[in-house]
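User:
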Amino acid sequence: MSRLYVGIMSGTSLDGIDIALVSFEGRQATLVGAICLPFPESLHNDLLSLCTAGPDEIQRAGRAGIAWATLAADGVNALLAEHSVAAAQVSAIGSHGQTIRHHPELGFSCQIGAPALLAELSGISVICDFRSRDLAAGGEGAPLVPAFHHWLLGSPMDTRVLVNIGGFANLTVLKPDHPALGFDSGPGNVLLDHWITQYRGEAFDRDGQWARSGTAEDALLVRMLQDPYFQRKAPKSTGREYFNASWLDDVLEQAGKTFAPADVQATLLELTARSIAQDVRSNIPGSADIYVCGGGARNGWLMQRLAELLAPAVVQTTQTLGVDPDWMEAIAFAWLAWRFDTREPANLPAVTGARGQRILGALYPA
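Assistant: Predicted structure:
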């Protein structure tokens, strides 16, 4: 018997909320429908400011969480109406919320999103706070999506690498007869988006056109890749707490020269591509096909550079596997809600470093 769940994902790119309506039956996840709601500029700015220390954080976080939940509820209600699905037909919402701090080294990761209000406004039970249980068991609390990748896309015959490129990039390595591996390789779009916003007032570099117009600065790239994070072994996860505008400013200052803005953008794209390729090669001694999802899958220049760096491996999107690359993470959070509902563990200790498998999430009944 199939069951309907809603998955809500709002990632480190801070561009909006992805909402997916998903049907689960057996080992199949079917996307019924999906919607993306861009953040109003005021909410984007509020969430971005909460990623670093500042005054009056508790009140600002509370207000931003309410605004986030209100927007998410509007999206859920619109999506259900579009597909003639009543709230009572949905088993639960799996809500990631919005990460504003991720400090696994301190034992916590903070997501806001007023789940009780989301349950009230949607009339659907909300399952949230998926990272805390893994953290309590000594894990990183991230990445969580590799467990879903393993459940849905693991193959008994082929080695597959899934690369999710959002604000940050994370990899899932699926080898036959081996535990799945997964970790954050480093920045995805986060620094690219910051740089083009700063210099051109644009939210993102469409298709990588600005990066393509510049020339990657080899010495600057080497300096970036010397950051200790890129030498760390998995399990590892990162976020805006580490790779942010201050990190980039420090690297540029240490370089001791001025670079053309387009060349910095080209170098940042190369940083994303090289750090991904470096981790693929170090974890896959043989060949494997590469499947990309997330916003980075729409960046033609980034996809081309990945294909060139990883040849002869084939680089394609997860659409080849039957999963729309735009909705992979939202579907994953619907799956996490389903796993909580069925009281099944949803973390992979080999990925997060937790002491064992745990049931993830907390419930706010409708």
